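The authors assume throughout that readers already know how a fold can be written as discrete tokens. The format is easy to grasp once an entry is in front of the reader. For illustration, here is how one protein appears when written out as sequence plus structure tokens:
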Amino acid sequence: MQPISPEKIQPLLEHFCNRDVYLHLETTNGSYAVLRGEKTISVGSFVRNVVVRFERGMITGNGPYRVGLKMEHGWIYAEGLTDWDPASTENVLLMAGHDEEGRLMIAFQLSVTPFGTESGEKE
């Protein structure tokens, strides 16, 4: 993973527009807060292999970044993104947000094929 370069992400987002793609969106502070003994409420979300079609995708901010997907009947957005995989292509886009200690706080991924399971098999 490398720090996000919006000028590299934007064309990839545009490539996914107006076609069915698979979304993986995950947020967490759960185990990290518990491990530090903080008295916070554990929060998180997990969406995997949901097929979405969006008409506009955009990245905004100065870091951390926000990615929004404008769909026919609403929006999907992810905030707090800091890093991306430069091996991302027109077939897969991988981004994540890490805190100051390098812990994963958010993952945002798009793909033209389903994401595999933890064992590496397709779902």
